[in-house]
Amino acid sequence: MHHTPRWLDLLVCGMAAVLLFVGASAHVTDLLSHGLHPYDWAPGRLNLYWSPLALFDALAALFLIRGKRRGTDLACAIMATDLAANWYAVYGVHHSNLAAQPGLRRLTVLAVLVLGTAPVIRQHRTD
Q1: Closest CA to 85 of 107, 59, 55, 54
Q2: Backbone φ and ψ of 126, nearest 5°
Q3: Nearest alpha carbon to residue 64 among 25, 19, 110, 2
Q4: Amino acid 78: pLDDT
Q5: What is the reported pLDDT for 1?
Q6: pTM for this predicted structure
Q7: How far is the C-alpha of 70 from the C-alpha of 44, rounded, in Å?
Q8: In which region does residue 55 sit, left (phi positive, over 0), alpha (psi from -120 to 50) or beta (all else)?
């Protein structure tokens, strides 16, 4: 773990930051279009979780770009909880499955990328 190439660190953090900004943009768009309860199909607790991601996704991306360890930690917390919330929405609310939900498949891949690389990436981060 001590010999992770710097270019790999930058690549992974750059990809994660871009995708976190995409997520933040989606949440901002939903909030501007539909107000503080943008997902009318979802229980209130899911809206309460997803709406602040407009801020937290962007914050994690900025910390990653600035090389801060808290960006890696925040991205991990967001990915783990967002993945759980989306799996609940798909299975518990929509009674659907992974095969029918391309967005959930993409989010799962991003979560695996972020959570799987975090221990290696953290070594290059500062606080």
Answers
A1: 107
A2: -125, 170
A3: 19
A4: 97
A5: 46
A6: 0.88
A7: 28
A8: alpha
Q: How far apart are CA 111 and CA 92, in angstroms?
A: 20
Give the residues across from 68 on adjacent strands: 126
Q: State pLDDT tens for residues 75-95.
A: 999 999 999 999 999 999 989
Contact by Cβ (8 Å): 122, 72: yes
Identify the pLDDT of residue 68: 92
Kindly report, residue by residue over 30-75, the tens digit of the pLDDT: 999 999 899 999 999 999 999 999 999 999 999 999 989 999 999 9
Q: How many residues are recorded in the chain?
A: 127
DSSP-assigned states of every residue in the chain: -TT--HHHHHHHHHHHHHHHHHHHHHHHHHHHHHTTS--TTS-HHHHHHHTTHHHHHHHHHHHHHTTBHHHHHHHHHHHHHHHHHHHHIIIIIS---GGG-HHHHHHHHHHHHHHHHHHHHGGG-B-
Structure tokens of 122? 């953290």
